[in-house]
UniProtKB/TrEMBL annotation:
Substrate binds at residue 213. Belongs to the peptidase S11 family. Residues 22-243 form the Peptidase S11 D-alanyl-D-alanine carboxypeptidase A N-terminal domain. Gene3D superfamilies: DD-peptidase/beta-lactamase superfamily. InterPro entries: Beta-lactam/transpept-like, Peptidase_S11, Peptidase_S11_N. Residues 1-19 form the signal peptide. This is Peptidase S11. It comes from Rugamonas aquatica. The lineage of its organism: Bacteria, Pseudomonadati, Pseudomonadota, Betaproteobacteria, Burkholderiales. PANTHER family: D-ALANYL-D-ALANINE CARBOXYPEPTIDASE, D-ALANYL-D-ALANINE ENDOPEPTIDASE. GO terms for molecular function: serine-type D-Ala-D-Ala carboxypeptidase activity. Keywords: Cell shape, Cell wall biogenesis/degradation, Hydrolase, Peptidoglycan synthesis, Signal. One of its GO terms (biological process) is peptidoglycan biosynthetic process. The active site is at residues 51, 54, 108.
């Protein structure tokens, strides 16, 4: 009886009262299916969203029912001149649209995302019109998206809107599949190049991820959208503006532990976080907007 009373009291407390340590500026965790808010922190504050934008780009492109086998050539106009982010897609490379979408979502390649908008039926102007229509259709009242990559700080949203966007994106089988691939090998100018998912939790021990997208720019900080299953419970999390990749990872682990509850199995947390911290350090030299 006492346990039931405590559970009821805890369910009415705020995140601060629950003492779940969260380093991200904005956080929202929602139970899939019911829409019940499990954790919340600054969920209605509008902030830059970096490459979380690419989920919208992917939805709009797929909505146009394009020929996924059609070749797309990477052009100079696809090169990032705003942040000068790196890419392993050289100008002149030609790939099938399905491979370009794979790189835009899984590896968060900015040239890939830019080329998808450039080759959208009707061109970039038609792409932007389609994005605005999609934003309206999904009821994303606090979302502004001006370009397809997320490099612009003018691409802004709230955690509340982004949960809606993640829910919509999860209805696309291609997006679910691509964002939960751990890696892929793509033919680039006759050379087999291996690409990896920017979210190292995808495929990691103890994680059952159904949708994923990371983001990073200086203005947006480290961001993450992820739908996951923990102890039989399905949830969607949005993390915005974590100051470091390790902070973003720690938030994700703490949230998974919270969602799992006392009967969950968060025992791998310490070892996994340590491993991901090491991975983050080794990758720091090659930081790019993602």
């Amino acid at each position: 009886m006492l346990k039931k009373i405590v559970a009821v009291l805890l369910s009415s407390f705020t995140v601060a009262a629950l003492a779940v340590p969260l380093g991200s500026q904005s956080v929202l965790v929602v139970e899939d299916g019911t829409g019940k808010v499990l954790l919340e922190k600054n969920s209605n504050v509008q902030v830059p969203i970096a490459s979380l934008t690419k989920l919208m780009t992917a939805m709009v492109v797929l909505d146009s029912k394009p020929d996924m086998d059609a070749p797309i050539s990477i052009e100079k106009t696809d090169v990032d001149m705003l942040k000068h982010s790196t890419s392993r897609l050289p100008v002149g490379a030609e790939l099938a649209r399905r491979d370009v979408l794979q790189l835009a979502l899984m590896s968060s390649d900015n040239r890939a995302a830019a080329s998808l908008a450039r080759t959208f039926p009707g061109g970039p102007a038609a792409f932007k019109t389609a994005v605005n229509a999609k934003i309206k259709a999904l009821g994303l009242s606090q979302t502004v998206i001006e370009e397809p990559t997320g490099l612009s700080p003018n691409n802004r949203s709230t955690a509340t809107d982004l949960v809606k966007m993640a829910t919509a994106a999860s209805t696309y089988p291609d997006i679910r599949r691509i964002t939960t691939d751990t890696k892929d090998v793509i033919n680039i100018k006759g050379r087999q190049v291996e690409y990896h998912n920017t979210n190292r939790l995808v495929g990691a021990k103890g994680w059952d991820v159904g949708l994923s997208k990371t983001g990073y720019t200086e203005e947006a900080g480290r961001c993450l959208i992820m739908r996951f299953k923990s102890a039989g419970k399905n949830a969607t999390l949005v993390l915005l503006n974590a100051k470091a990749n390790s902070a973003r990872l720690m938030d994700a682990f703490n949230i998974r532990r919270f969602v799992a509850g006392p009967d969950g199995e968060p025992k791998v947390m310490k070892a996994s976080v340590t491993r991901h911290k090491k991975a983050a350090k080794s990758a720091k030299r090659h930081r790019r907007a993602a």
